[in-house]
Amino acid sequence: MTKIKKIKIPAFLFLLIFIFISCIGQNSNVFTPVPDFSIYESNNSIDINSIIGTKDDGAAAEHLPTWLFAYIEGGIEAVEKLDSYNNKYAFIGINEGINFTALTKWADNISAVYDFPIMAAQRTGNRMILTASQYPDDEYGIFYETMIKNAYNNEYPGAVKEDVYWIKVRFEDENTHEYKEKYMFFVLITINKTPMQVIIRDMISKTIDTVNLSRNQRNTVNRLRQNFFEGF
């Protein structure tokens, strides 16, 4: 059986974790403590054959909702190509572990108001990483960090929590090579493309106005502004 690949967390996500920790005392509705770790918008790789249980009491892939099957097979891009979401950006929050009750509370408490900004900030950071030919900090300067912080602190009217689904998987532990089981919870949040693009364009303009950049960095940021939504 093919094992579930380890999920890699982009370096800039540690910045979001820092922001999150600093905000816990300010807003008790941000997250519910959960076992193991939380991941947002990860490029997850799951072997369909490793699924041994689902929310609908079935172990076969045909029990999965269409959006989740599309995500497992082709990532976020595949979800956004579905007829139901082709005019929307899809964001999927993921959490995994062995404590089903705690994971259920986490999924129930995910909010499109409080939690979506973290997803938006992560995708914004990913976009800049993929566009950069060098290190984003060098290529974009302080714009890189400031843009991520602004994305995290922004509001996104229209974001909707569409669905929650969980699966149970069997996987091989990389260290012990023993087979273990865990739950994986998926939370789907969507937002219409047009208002999301308006928000981000406004955010880019405001961020540029508040940072000092070298000539090369400003040219790079301007190119980013022109094609930001290609592959977003």
Q: Which helices and strands, and how do they pair?
A:
Blueprint: H1 13-23, E1 37-40, E2 51-54, H2 66-80, E3 88-97, H3 100-109, H4 116-131, H5 136-140, H6 142-153, E4 160-172, E5 179-192, H7 193-210, H8 215-227
Antiparallel strand pairs: 1-3, 2-4, 3-5, 4-5
Explain the overall architecture:
The chain has 232 residues and is of the alpha+beta class. The protein has one domain (47-227). 43% of the residues lie in helices and 19% in strands. It contains 8 helices and 5 strands. The protein has helices at residues 13-23, 66-80, 100-109, 116-131, 136-140, 142-153, 193-210, 215-227; strands at 37-40, 51-54, 88-97, 160-172, 179-192. A hairpin with a 6-residue loop joins strand 4 and strand 5. Helix 4 (116-131) runs antiparallel to helix 6 and helix 6 packs across helix 7 (193-210). The chain starts with 12 loop residues before the first helix and ends in a 5-residue tail after the last helix. Mean pLDDT is 83; it is low at 1-37.
Task: Considering the chains and any ligands shown, give keywords for the structure.
5 strands; 19% strand; alpha+beta; 232 residues; disordered N terminus
- Helicity level: 40-55%
Secondary-structure content class:
alpha+beta
Number of domains: 1
Major sheet size, sense and barrel closure: 5 strands, antiparallel
Percentage beta strand: 15-25%
Mean pLDDT: 83
What form results from the Cα inertia axes?
elongated
Over all CA atoms, what is the radius of gyration? 18 Å
Helix/strand order:
HEEHEHHHHEEHH
How many helical elements?
Answer: 8
How many individual β-strands? 5
Distance between the termini: 33 Å
Weakly predicted, low-confidence segments: 1-37
Strand order of the largest sheet: 1-3-5-4-2
